[in-house]
Specification:
By secondary structure, this protein is an all-alpha fold. 78% of the residues lie in helices and 0% in strands. The longest helix has 29 residues. The C terminus is likely disordered.
């Protein structure tokens, strides 16, 4: 039980550090007139992720125990390719110069 408790503490601590930054990032990316909509979307997606993803994970796990992990790997690979190919993500903030690699 102690390892389970420790794992839960580490998980929730990471979530507590992550969520404010991800909420603020979405807010900073929107114009002033879009703030309410962005706040609503961020809150609803966060709530849905807490409810929907465990259900999907359990259903996949019933098919085969490795299915949730394989799906996670596929989603992360797809997001990596998307982030790598997306021009606005490569550029960074509007008006900023791309970072150069110093050798």
């Amino acid at each position: 039980i102690w390892m389970l408790t420790l794992g839960y503490v580490v998980l929730t601590l990471g979530y507590a550090f992550c969520r404010p930054g991800f909420t603020a990032g979405a807010s900073l990316a929107a114009r002033e007139d879009q703030q309410g909509g962005v706040a609503g979307m961020v809150s609803s997606v966060s709530g849905a992720a807490i409810v929907v993803t465990p259900v999907i994970g359990v259903l996949l796990y019933e098919l085969t125990p490795s299915a949730p992990f394989l799906l996670n790997c596929a989603v992360m690979a797809g997001l990596t390719v998307y982030a790598w190919k997306n021009a606005s993500l490569r550029r960074g903030a509007p008006g900023s110069e791309p970072a150069s690699i110093v050798s």
